[in-house]
Design a protein that fits this description.
9% helix; 7-stranded mixed β-sheet; 5-stranded mixed β-sheet; 34 strands; mainly beta; single chain; 4 helices
Length: 494
């Protein structure tokens, strides 16, 4: 046996011994470092809720042979793992977090390289007092391409574990795009999504009963997209958008989506009536992305002056507006008010999402347009509805695109997408917002083996939302209904 082969076998045997026996023994003859360990994902200093899946991680060092991690709770309890990556037992992890709610976890990380263990500087993870009681997340998973829909679907993921399943996958409905899904205040009893393609439709499911609405109508002039439920569940707001996409020829920009025209309206799923108003369907302005206030008394939306496209696409800039809504009568107020003037800043506002406690509106600010997912300058901002003041959430943002966000029902947790890792793929992050509107350092949605998961994944995540429980949806029956093309007509209220 030559020396190279012998050396390789010795290394493999040593690593197997470390993996198989290391969990019961701490490293000895350790060299100390005054540096923090470089982790993937970066979980150093984050704040997490009780009940979240284990924050497994790898060390970002191609020469690392093994990692050893000790975790100690400020209120008691310890964990110890050793192996190729930090892989925590789910049950023990949940016990440790429950024991340390409102406290902190101290991590001691050692890395084995060339037979030598190095112990890095300890770091902490805070365990929040704020509950995250939702069962999980829903989101669209899609390949980051442009020309074809490719493989995509709407998926759901349990937050306490790593279990993921499809709500509906377009392998069941070839050539179709499923998007724009939304439940009512994270309650999936009211669930809606849009199907785009030859068999287009808007699906509205209430208490397990599905209805498929005609995708386009002469009244609307476009599809029913970007839905948002009224808190009573009696109405769902939509916008109808005629979008186009173009491609950049410069290195740092890829794709642009601009809105030829759009209007906002409210749909009554019981009567199948569409409620419109001249203030929300103007000729020279595009109204877009409506959301109801948590008390149901107002409808927030974006609006911008229509431009000549594609020549002046960079002049497409949106402000945030508000109009009163009477849920008893199903009528709108007499005037629309501007809540945040992004245009005066030379910017464009998109994806407004009010917190369910009525304190804030979280939105994305970008240089122009509303399709912020491809804009590296896209950042998250928080508008205080009591003071009218807005500020950039520097704690949440990154140098790359941060966008698509939603609140959990107690308004202390936010899920959003970010391209901060590689600039190409949008991944899911969570962050905590306290009673004073301060935001914690975001953390990536945990995966069983994060490095391997992201290396093998060909999909971006977008339009995430929390869900109180697993969405009950018969995808097999729904696929037949989509391809069957039986659609219900909507009508304008007389």
């Amino acid at each position: 046996m030559n020396n190279v082969m012998h050396s390789s076998l010795v290394s493999i045997v040593f690593l197997l011994i470390v993996v198989l026996t290391g969990c019961s023994s701490n490293p000895t003859d350790v060299k100390k470092s005054d540096q923090l360990p470089k982790l993937y994902p970066d979980y150093v200093g984050v704040t997490i809720p009780v009940g979240i899946a284990p924050l497994n991680f790898s060390v970002q060092d191609e020469n690392a042979e093994a990692v050893d991690v000790n975790v100690k709770g400020s209120k008691g309890g310890t964990m110890h793992v050793q192996g190729e990556w930090a892989d925590f037992d789910i049950d023990e992890w949940h016990q440790l977090l429950a024991q340390n709610k409102g406290g902190e976890l101290t991590y001691t990380v050692c890395v084995l390289k060339a037979g030598q263990w190095t112990q890095y500087q300890d770091f902490k993870i805070m365990v929040s007092n704020y509950a995250l009681d939702e069962w999980g997340l829903t989101y669209r998973r899609i390949a980051p391409g442009y020309e074809v829909y490719s493989h995509m679907g709407i998926f759901q993921r349990e937050l306490a574990t790593f279990e993921e399943s499809a709500i509906i996958d377009n392998t069941q409905i070839p050539g179709q795009c499923v998007n724009c899904h939304m439940s009512n205040r994270t309650n999936p009893d009211r669930f809606v999504f849009h199907v785009r393609g030859a068999h287009g439709a808007t699906m509205v499911q209430m208490n397990g009963k599905r209805e498929w609405l005609k995708a386009k109508s002469d009244l609307l002039g476009g599809s029913m997209v970007y839905p948002y439920w009224h808190p009573t569940g009696k109405y769902c707001a939509f916008s109808t958008n005629q979008t186009r996409q173009g491609f950049h020829v410069v290195k740092d920009e890829r794709i642009e989506v601009f809105d030829l025209s759009s209007d906002v309206f409210v749909y009554n799923p019981v009567s199948r009536e569409i409620l419109t108003d001249s203030l929300l369907m103007t000729k020279d302005w595009s109204e877009n992305s409506p959301v109801f206030s948590p008390d149901g008394k107002y409808l927030y939306y974006m609006t911008c002056k229509q431009q000549e496209y594609p020549a002046h696409y960079k002049d497409e800039k949106y402000n945030l507006c508000r109009i009163a809504f009477d849920a008893e009568k199903g009528v709108f107020g007499q005037q629309a008010d501007t809540l945040f003037n992004a245009v005066a800043m030379g910017k464009s506002l998109t994806w407004p999402r009010p917190s369910y406690d009525g304190k804030y509106i979280l939105f994305t600010l970008t240089d122009y347009g509303y399709f912020s997912i491809w804009h590296e300058e896209s950042d998250q901002w928080l508008l205080d509805l009591d003071t009218g003041e807005a500020r950039e959430l520097k704690e949440m943002n990154s140098p790359r695109a941060d966008s698509y966000h939603n609140w959990n029902v107690n308004s202390h947790w936010v899920v959003f997408t970010s391209r901060r890792d590689d600039g190409l793929y949008s991944r899911l992050y969570l962050a905590c917002i306290d009673d004073k509107g301060q935001c914690s350092k975001p953390f990536m949605l945990p995966q069983r083996n994060p490095k391997k998961y992201d290396e093998r994944s060909l999909y971006s995540f977008n339009t995430p939302d929390f869900t109180q429980r697993k969405v009950d949806f018969d995808a097999h029956a729904a696929a037949k209904e989509i391809m069957g093309d039986s659609r219900l007509e909507t009508k304008a209220r007389q």
